[in-house]
């Protein structure tokens, strides 16, 4: 909680500065929304994604919700999925209201291929998708020697299996119908650097990086583009609960001060890259993983290497804090 407040404070500073210019006295969230849409409107035509139908896995929270918001605001019909119906319904309401665009939610568990297949069939019943964003993710800090098979499996299956089955579900339908398509996976810069203490996530994201290059070649002749983005730190509630649960866990990966651009990423910046990559204007880019991290991974503090100073007692407290966050999430799940 402390660290979320810190991230919020860093964000507030930027927002306050701009709020003086735009709307003095407006609540911070309202100013933020107005700034977000202004920036997007300057960057792209608001009809850029008209006619597109895009699934964003894990689109009910965090980066997935923000990306979905950007697509819908540029004319796309977005579909979001996750395991918590209430969270998804809230997100759909927010996306429709803020973007003025179209959004629908489906409950699905990307760790389960049958659940993904059912979701794809349900979506295709109303028309084909034109794009997929593999965004659903799972992660928590832990010394690798303490991980149980179930802990490893939870992370690997969400990231690696989920991205594979979702890509395959779309790809096979596009190929059968002779339709083009676009796939973008949301990775992390650890695909190049690795990271201590989040080894299953670093491994699984690297696997999806390999899938990106491989499928770009296999499906390129069929008109299917496959790319990925590798963000640096963009603070979200869930990611920070799982990756920065204690005062002691504030090291390189989740800190802004060693990013060469000296700040966290902004949602608008990620949205702009995603809108570009999924649009027809980007038709000659495939097989690439594009970093969006303010130069973080090149300056080398972008991992959790600094956590080697934690004691076993610190790790126990970290584990309890992370698991309290997971328990809170689980209360809302129906899949
Ligand atoms: C340079 C960049 C900087 C920033 C990079 C940010 C990169 C971001 C990556 C992210 O993806 S952040 C996303 C965070 N959001 C989530 O993780 C949402 C989804 N999370 C979940 O579903 C859970 O948190 C889960 C634990 C991953 C899986 O849930 P599931 O219901 O399957 O789990 P459980 O039954 O609760 O646990 C399974 C297994 O895992 C063990 N475990 C859980 N927490 C810990 C821990 N902290 N340490 C060690 N082990 C843990 C748990 O004990 C279970 O194992 P068993 O005990 O049953 O053997
Ligand atoms: N925040 C950051 O700084 C960075 C994030 N990323 C990546 O961005 C993505 C989003 O992260 P972020 O927004 O921070 O975190 P969130 O936890 O907010 O997002 C993860 C989303 O995935 C969904 N999800 C998790 N497991 C499953 C599952 N089995 N089936 C369906 N949906 C699932 C969750 O919903 P539910 O639990 O309801 O199923 C949630 O909406 C992740 O892939 C992450 O690795 C990459 C680099 C940096």
UniProtKB/TrEMBL annotation:
Transmembrane regions listed in the UniProt entry: none
Root EC class: oxidoreductase
GO term, biological process aspect, one: fatty acid biosynthetic process
Pfam families per record: adh_short_C2
Recorded superkingdom: Bacteria
Species for this entry: Bradyrhizobium lablabi
Gene Ontology molecular functions: trans-2-enoyl-CoA reductase (NADPH) activity
Protein's name according to its UniProt entry: Peroxisomal trans-2-enoyl-CoA reductase
Keyword entries, A-Z: Fatty acid biosynthesis, Fatty acid metabolism, Lipid biosynthesis, Lipid metabolism, NADP, Oxidoreductase, Peroxisome, Phosphoprotein
Pathway(s) annotated for this protein in UniProt: Lipid metabolism
Subunit structure: Interacts with PEX5, probably required to target it into peroxisomes.
EC number(s) stated in the UniProt entry for this protein: 1.3.1.38
């Amino acid at each position: 909680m402390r660290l979320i407040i810190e991230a919020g404070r860093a964000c507030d500073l930027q927002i306050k500065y701009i709020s003086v210019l735009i709307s003095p006295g407006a609540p911070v969230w309202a100013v933020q929304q107005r700034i977000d849409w202004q920036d997007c409107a300057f960057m792209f035509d608001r009809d850029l994604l008209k006619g597109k139908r895009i699934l964003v896995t894990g689109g009910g929270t965090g980066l997935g919700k923000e990306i979905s918001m950007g697509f819908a605001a540029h004319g796309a019909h977005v579909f979001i999925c996750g395991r918590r119906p209430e969270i998804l319904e809230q997100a759909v309401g927010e996306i429709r209201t803020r973007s003025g665009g179209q959004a629908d939610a489906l409950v699905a568990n990307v760790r389960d291929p049958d659940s993904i297949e059912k979701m794809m069939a349900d979506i295709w019943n109303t028309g084909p998708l034109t794009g997929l964003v593999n965004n659903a993710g799972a992660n928590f800090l832990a010394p690798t020697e303490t991980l149980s098979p179930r802990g490893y499996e939870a992370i690997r299956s969400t990231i690696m299996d989920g991205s594979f089955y979702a890509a395959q579900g779309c790809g096979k339908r596009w190929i059968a119908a002779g339709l083009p398509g676009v796939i973008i996976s949301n990775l992390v810069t650890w695909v190049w650097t690795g990271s201590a203490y989040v080894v299953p996530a670093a491994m699984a994201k690297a696997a999806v990086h390999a899938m990106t290059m491989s499928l770009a070649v296999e499906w390129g002749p069929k008109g299917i583009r496959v790319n990925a983005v590798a963000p640096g730190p963009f603070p979200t509630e869930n990611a920070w609960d799982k990756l920065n649960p204690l005062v002691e866990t504030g090291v390189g990966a989740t800190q802004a001060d060693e990013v060469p651009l000296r700040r966290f990423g902004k949602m608008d910046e990620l949205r702009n890259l995603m809108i570009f990559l999924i649009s027809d204007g980007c038709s000659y880019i495939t097989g690439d993983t594009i970093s969006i991290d303010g130069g973080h991974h090149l300056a080398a503090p972008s991992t959790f290497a600094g956590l080697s100073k934690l004691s076993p007692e610190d790790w126990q407290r970290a584990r309890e804090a992370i698991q309290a966050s997971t328990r809170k999430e689980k209360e809302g799940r129906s899949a």
